[in-house]
Amino acid sequence: MVQKTVDERPMDQEADFLKINSIDHVHWWVGNAKQAMYYWWKAFGFKPVAYSGLETGNREFASYVLESGKIRFVISAPYRPTSEIAAHQMLHGDGVKVIALGVDDVESAFEETTKRGAKPAWSPREEADEYGVIRTAAIHTYGEVLHVFVDRSDYNGAFMPSYQPLDLPHESAGLAAIDHIVGNVQLGKMNYWVQFYHDVMGFRQLLHFDDKDISTEYSALMSKVMSNGNGRVKFPINEPAEGKRKSQIEEYLDYYMTPGVQHIAMSTGDIITTMKILRSRGIEFLRVPDTYYDVLPERVGEIKEDLATIRELGILVDRDDEGYLLQVFSRPLQDRPTAFVEIIQRHGARGFGKGNFKALFEALELEQARRGNL
Ligand code: FE2
């Protein structure tokens, strides 16, 4: 199966104005950080590493930092209804507020992006404590989401000033890194945000899926995958497409009330072990019909993993020119049918599982129908 690669030109100097080292962290704003933290800790096997709250002098919000491999999540909830986290939570439910990007030079990142049209959220600032100094600045992206630029090279505290270290035992599920983070935007807005990531952030387009690739009998979506200069950060952008019934993207927008993060894909080096752990801990995943597995060998050819195990765990497989990948999608992580996660293991393949879209979206529509939203 061939995916359309849209822009393979090397990044020119002009385009490489924003050097991103990594996704520094993803910040979730939720209603109850203590309980959400427990979910990431006990179910997804993250290690709690830092806490901020009343006991640390933070009178605005409670906040936990958890890590798994290179993934860092921050989970925060408000103490008072006047908090902006409370307002956000009331409107959107639990969701991702910040995708923070690690950079060497916060001033330059802010300057280069805002002069190209990014709407500033805060200009470069420093926060210091006995562990050093953290530099940040932030810009707005789709919906209510911010990109915070972070330079922590002169800081060796637990996370940031006001956070104290936590050291709690944890049992890892093997989640290693963020593979990609997908944004859902309104009908007709995909190209606007593709242009934004290109012009303002210096990203280029890797792939394009149209409604012929991603459609079922009922609903459709379109997607373009944007990647930064060194390829470490990948942000697919989805928009709904016309279909007979309501697209899954429209359902998301109806419940999140604004564009936002649809899913975070986290990689593992051993998806079978990871899935055994996550399933045993009660995480719910989408299941495709069993017939998917009857035709799998002829669709993807030889794979290292045992097919019976793959089938039993509900893992999906796709192959492209460069190899294959294994992936699985969770049900929504909160009551609203909004954000979810993907678990992915790549054996060379650089795609996003196009061969699974149809089976997957049919499974998704069954769930949407059960919620009365199709
Ligand atoms: Fe994905």
Describe the structure.
This protein is α+β, with helices and mostly antiparallel strands and 374 residues long. Helices cover 24% and strands 34% of the residues. The chain has ten helices and 17 strands. Fe (ii) ion (FE2) binds next to β10 and β14.
Secondary structure elements and their pairing?
Elements: E1 22-29, H1 33-43, E2 47-52, E3 61-68, E4 71-78, H2 84-92, E5 95-102, H3 106-114, E6 120-129, E7 132-140, E8 146-151, E9 164-165, E10 175-184, H4 190-199, E11 204-209, E12 220-227, E13 234-241, H5 248-256, E14 260-268, H6 271-280, H7 291-294, H8 296-300, H9 307-313, E15 316-320, E16 323-329, E17 340-347, H10 357-370
Parallel strand pairs: 1-4, 5-8, 10-13, 14-17
Antiparallel strand pairs: 1-5, 2-3, 2-9, 3-4, 6-7, 7-8, 10-14, 11-12, 12-13, 15-16, 16-17
This protein binds fe (ii) ion.
Notable characteristics:
2,3-Dihydroxybiphenyl 1,2-Dioxygenase, domain 1; binds fe (ii) ion; 10 helices; 2 domains; 8-stranded mixed β-sheet; alpha+beta
Mean pLDDT: 92
| Domains, number | 2
Helix-strand string:
EHEEEHEHEEEEEHEEEHEHHHHEEEH
CATH top level label of the largest domain: Alpha Beta
Inertia-based shape: globular
Bound molecules: fe (ii) ion
Outline:
The protein is of the alpha+beta class. The chain is 24% helix and 34% strand. The protein is built from ten helices and 17 strands.
